[in-house]
From TrEMBL:
Name recorded for this polypeptide: proline dehydrogenase
Record's keyword terms, sorted: FAD, Flavoprotein, Nucleotide-binding, Oxidoreductase, Proline metabolism
Record field: transmembrane: none
Enzyme Commission number(s): 1.5.5.2
Catalytic activities: L-proline + a quinone = (S)-1-pyrroline-5-carboxylate + a quinol + H(+)
Molecular function via GO: nucleotide binding; proline dehydrogenase activity
Keyword Magnesium part of the UniProt annotation: no
Residues reported in the UniProt entry to bind FAD: 124, 153, 220-221
Amino acid sequence: MFNKMIAATLPFMPKKLVWLFSKRYIAGETIDDAIKASLDLNAQGIKITVDLLGEFIKDLSQATENKDAYLDIIEAFEKNKIDGNYSVKPTFFGLLIDPEVCYENIRTVVAKAAEYNNFVRIDMEDSPCVDKEIDMFRRLKKEFPNNVGLVVQAYLKRTHTDLENMMDIKNGSVLNYRLCKGIYVEPVEIAYKKYEEINENYIKDLDFMLKNDIYPGIATHDKNLIQPAYDLIEKYNVPKDKYEFQMLYGVTPELRQSILDQGHTMRVYVPFGKDWFGYSTRRLKENPKMAMLIIKALFSRG
């Protein structure tokens, strides 16, 4: 209850105060900020995926602006020879307004990345978006078989079936999924709620990916999932270029380094943009348990 109260209050605090917490987890507001953060990570042997913050737009003019912004991001990152790829949220491109316009916008972004032999990840959002985003991935995968991937969420009860159903689009190309737990608040009818259930399903999904030659982005900060992931990699004798670990910018750097030290590929999700405040407060509402950590950060860094 206390965490929920704090989570409801923080969005109304001064932005400068919230930034004391947020700046650790966000690269900045500009492309230059994101490039600097990405180059710093590359220098540590870490790959990146960059994300322009924003989602759930209100009109299609914003979708066009966002598409153009991503085209500029791709040009800038490729010019700077950054070892990384790109993540997109379909609602940022108009998914809930006009799915076909959204598809055309994201297709343009994927086509631009493909010009550089690079890769775009379609983020998975809350449950009303899942079918639309899988359909979009299927369409893009046919045209750009090596340049597009998807996110799947282990806490959704449907995810394992989705993985099985999407095996038909492999067709000699690599299926590339980021496997995360999931952060959106979903009803118990469609999502696992207990920590143990979510972790059990995460490992079940990862097992399916590794034994079926799917390239997983093992996206977790949970120490209790790292060793089981190592065990599965060893069990299936997976080469180190057939999987990677993924983490969020600024989160669990010690755990991240320990994975790197064992020779595994690490990719960090680098979010940036002027919507950092909305991003931070939305994530807080979705995960109220973060509230106490934020309060501690505000006072320890203030």
